[in-house]
């Protein structure tokens, strides 16, 4: 079995998400901060006339955040999550890759914590590896509720 992933970079690491969950990729633009939202919620952004919450994956994964100059070159991967669109702020988008089942390994059992829940697997590529994320599990139930509340308040 083969599936396609959109690959992107966070820091020095490569990540991928199922292309079927991706709506679009856009330039990072003007953000409206939302008071009292989770630290990893960058704010909301107007994407083609829709107000879309933006998740800063660096903050979500506890990676040092980009500075303001670097953020100007960042990208937003717009995904479909629970019947709503959510933007994932990433350093850069690389390419669409085809991953075969035999290239994918379960994450090592030594990886603990919440992160293990949203790692679908580790893809072994020619000379590198890529963490494949399970987009449906990237946010906890509580975080999804919080995002829903944010979106209710901005309507």
Describe the structure.
This protein has about 160 residues and is mainly β. Helices cover about 15% and strands about 45% of the residues. The longest helix is centred in the last third of the chain and has 14 residues, at about 140-155. The model has no long low-confidence stretch (mean pLDDT about 90).
Q: Could you give a quick summary of the protein structure above?
A:
This protein is mainly beta and 155 residues long. Helix content is 14%, strand content 46%. It has one domain: CheA-289, Domain 4 (OB fold (Dihydrolipoamide Acetyltransferase, E2P)).
From the structure above, extract its key features:
155 residues; OB fold (Dihydrolipoamide Acetyltransferase, E2P); 6-stranded mixed sheet; mainly beta; 5-stranded mixed sheet; 11 strands
Secondary structure topology:
Blueprint: E1 2-10, E2 13-18, E3 22-27, E4 41-47, E5 50-56, H1 57-60, H2 68-71, E6 75-81, E7 84-90, E8 92-100, E9 104-105, E10 119-124, E11 129-133, H3 141-154
Parallel strand pairs: 2-11, 5-7
Antiparallel strand pairs: 1-2, 1-8, 3-6, 4-5, 6-7, 9-10, 10-11
Radius of gyration: 15 Å
Q: Tell me about the biggest sheet? A: 6 strands, mixed
What spatial form do the alpha-carbon principal axes imply? globular
Compute the number of helices. Answer: 3
Content of β-strand: over 45%
Helix fraction, binned, reads 10-25%
Looking at the overall shape, the CATH architecture is: Beta Barrel
Task: Look up the CATH topology.
Answer: OB fold (Dihydrolipoamide Acetyltransferase, E2P)
The low-confidence parts are: none
Query: Which structural class do you get from the secondary structure elements?
Result: mainly beta
Provide the CATH superfamily. Answer: CheA-289, Domain 4
Integer count of domains: 1
User: How would you classify the quaternary structure?
Assistant: single chain
Mean pLDDT: 89
CATH class: Mainly Beta
Strand order of the largest sheet: 8-1-2-11-10-9
> How many strands?
11
Terminal residue distance: 42 Å
Instruction: Give the ordered list of helices and strands.
Output: EEEEEHHEEEEEEH
